[in-house]
């Protein structure tokens, strides 16, 4: 059963979640000498990123990457890297190491090998993975109707990253796979709004991709929500 943390408003959620993630990173730095964090993009995490960027941590011992990235230039308004650079890699967290998931290849499939090679420097397993969820029930870049969805969410898969060409959203993607996320020290699902809460409630019945996280018991995700 997933642990649920509900807050009365988004600023309270952002503050509490940022403090919680910082505690997790600090614990891994104490035990492993370094920590790693994969964060999602989209609109939800902006306030949490700002709060996390101000946490007191030895950030030079923290490696940050993305759970998923859209195959757009890093200065595009749709770039998850841009969101992270402008909101998380600021203040104290400017000292963190960042590994982006966008390369120079013409498309995501052609860039997959080069981007995967970058993860050689990422401390694995991840200390913490922070997932979001879209209105179509996707998480990471595991999109409903994508032709390779089952491959991306196969718990026995061996790849860290895969590509996705969504039917329900723009841009090709590179994304962490389900087994790479399940190996994380902690999995957090960060969502806001009544609509997303309702989508989550019917995820299993509708077989939304987020159910690959909420229905598994090997590493239960905690759910962090505010209206
Ligand atoms: O496309 C994406 O969408 C999801 C959800 O985004 P939001 O705007 O509804 O918060 C996000 O988790 C994912 O990282 C992103 O690539």
TrEMBL record:
The keyword Hydrolase applies. SUPFAM superfamilies: NagB/RpiA/CoA transferase-like. Pathway: Carbohydrate degradation; pentose phosphate pathway; D-ribulose 5-phosphate from D-glucose 6-phosphate (oxidative stage): step 2/3. InterPro entries: 6-phosphogluconolactonase_DevB (IPR005900), 6PGL (IPR039104), Glc/Gal-6P_isomerase (IPR006148), NagB/RpiA_transferase-like (IPR037171). It catalyses: 6-phospho-D-glucono-1,5-lactone + H2O = 6-phospho-D-gluconate + H(+). GO terms for biological process: carbohydrate metabolic process; pentose-phosphate shunt. One of its GO terms (molecular function) is 6-phosphogluconolactonase activity. Keywords: Hydrolase. It is an enzyme of class 3 (hydrolase). Pfam families: Glucosamine_iso (PF01182). Belongs to the glucosamine/galactosamine-6-phosphate isomerase family. 6-phosphogluconolactonase subfamily. Hydrolysis of 6-phosphogluconolactone to 6-phosphogluconate. This is 6-phosphogluconolactonase. The lineage of its organism: Bacteria, Pseudomonadati, Pseudomonadota, Gammaproteobacteria, Cellvibrionales.
């Amino acid at each position: 059963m997933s642990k649920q943390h509900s807050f009365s408003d988004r600023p309270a959620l952002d503050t509490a979640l940022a403090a919680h993630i910082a505690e997790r990173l600090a614990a891994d730095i104490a035990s492993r000498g370094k920590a790693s964090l994969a964060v999602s993009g989209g609109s939800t995490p902006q306030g949490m990123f700002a709060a996390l960027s101000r946490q007191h941590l030895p950030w030079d011992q923290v490696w940050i990457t993305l759970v998923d990235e859209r195959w757009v230039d890093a200065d595009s308004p749709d770039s998850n890297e841009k969101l992270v650079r402008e909101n998380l890699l600021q203040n104290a967290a400017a000292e963190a190491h960042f590994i982006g998931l966008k390369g120079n290849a013409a498309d995501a499939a052609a860039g997959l090998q080069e981007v995967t090679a970058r993860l050689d420097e990422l401390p694995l397993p991840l200390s913490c993975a922070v997932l979001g969820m879209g209105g179509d029930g996707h998480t990471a870049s595991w999109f409903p109707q994508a032709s390779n969805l089952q491959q991306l969410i196969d718990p026995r898969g061996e790849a860290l990253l895969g590509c996705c060409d969504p039917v329900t959203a723009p841009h090709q993607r590179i994304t962490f796979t389900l087994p790479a996320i399940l190996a994380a020290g902690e999995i957090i699902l960060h969502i806001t709004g009544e609509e997303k809460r309702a989508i989550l409630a019917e995820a299993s019945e509708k077989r939304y991709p987020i159910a690959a996280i909420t229905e598994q018991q090997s590493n239960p995700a905690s759910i962090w929500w505010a209206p």
